[in-house]
Amino acid sequence: DFRIREPWWHLIALAACFVELDTATWYCHSNALIVGMTLLGIAEFRDGRHLTAGMILMLASNFKILPALFAVSLLLSFKPTYFYGLAGCGVITFFLPSLVVGLRKNLDFHQEWLQILVRDAFGPGILDIATAFAHFHLYTAGICLRWTILIITSGLLGLSVFRSRRILWHIWISLGLASLLLVSPRTEFPTFVLIGPAYLLLAIELRNHSSGPLRYAEIFALCFLAYFISLASWRLHGPAPLGPQQKTLGALGVWILALCPL
User: Fold this and answer.
1) For the purposes of burial, counting CB atoms within 10 Å of the CB of 233, is it exposed (0-12), middle (13-18) or buried (19 or more)?
2) ∠ CA(106), CA(33), CA(130), 5° rounding?
3) Which residue of 137, 147, 208, 239 is 20 to 30 Å from 87, comparing CA positions?
4) Share of the chain above pLDDT 90, in %
5) 102-117: pLDDT as tens digits
6) 3-class DSSP state for residue 219?
7) pLDDT digit string (tens) for 14-28?
8) How far is Cα 239 from Cα 177, in angstroms, rounded to an integer?
9) Are the beta carbons of 189 and 126 closer than 8 angstroms?
10) What's the rounded Cα separation, in Å, for the pair 21 and 196?
11) Which long-range contacts does 211-216 make (Cβ < 8 Å, 24+ apart)?
12) DSSP assignment, residue 76?
């Protein structure tokens, strides 16, 4: 309904979201599809359709491992139907390729995939927080921050599901998406499409739950971070002042901003 007047910062968040979507589609990556499936799976869980949620999140995690952060966290809700959907889809997607390549070859492919995951986890990254800090000769600090972000995020996402009957979904999703960009060694320019939904969800959360001077400080921080990250998109502005690592540092700011309501 175009008669409803949205706050101006919603438009800034939407524009920044489209910048990252443009970059992802330019590189022909599947990241936009993955984040869309992840959001759909979480929405299904929020609305009580736990079986469907488990199936969607497992399918998304088969395309790319990143949605597993949300899929595993939601297991702490101890919803049997969610577990059945997750496990059932996992079994099907694990054995389905055997119909084409055979069981032995399928097992070999999965073994190679696990080896790649382990190698990526402990190998050199691209635009994760550890690699970004290493660019500024702060490698040890980056490694410590990377694991700190992973532990804090996993703990908060899991505890929110385990202890709360009313999860702040906007914050929960934004915190998870920002952390994935920071800890995944495979984060690169097209992967930053994950930050797009975080812009929009945080903008909505600021409208609903913040008030007073703190609200305007958070709004300014969100708009600045959206511009700061978008500035590193070479198709719009050319080289960023801090290089490609500027996007990573901006994602760290979004992660910190998502922590504030918690």
Assistant:
1) buried
2) 80
3) 147
4) 51
5) 889 989 988 998 888 8
6) helix
7) 888 888 888 888 887
8) 25
9) no
10) 8
11) none
12) G
244 near 181, Cβ under 8 Å?
no
Query: Using CA atoms, how far apart are residues 243 and 247, in angstroms rounded to an integer?
Result: 8
Neighbours of 88 (CB within 10 A): 14
Q: Alpha-carbon distance 66 to 62, whole Å? A: 9
Rounded distance between C-alpha atoms, residue 223 and residue 16, angstroms: 9
Q: What single-letter amino acid sits at 87?
A: A
Structure tokens at 29: 């990556």
Compare 262 and 184 and report the one with higher pLDDT.
184
Q: Can you tell me the mean pLDDT for 148-164? A: 92
Residue 170, amino acid = H
Q: Do the beta carbons of residue 222 and residue 257 sit within 8 Å?
A: yes
What are the residue ranges of helices labelled H in 75-194?
Answer: 80-95, 98-101, 103-122, 129-135, 139-163, 169-183
How many whole angstroms separate alpha carbon 11 and alpha carbon 2?
13
d(CA 199, CA 177): 10
Q: Determine the average pLDDT of the residues in 161-183.
A: 90
Q: What is the DSSP letter of 167?
A: -
Predicted confidence at residue 252, as pLDDT, reads 96
The radius of gyration of the chain's CA atoms, rounded to the nearest angstrom, is: 19
| Cβ pair 170, 202 in contact under 8 A | yes
State which H helix or E strand residue 37 sits in.
Answer: helix 31-46
Terminal Cα distance for the chain, rounded: 32
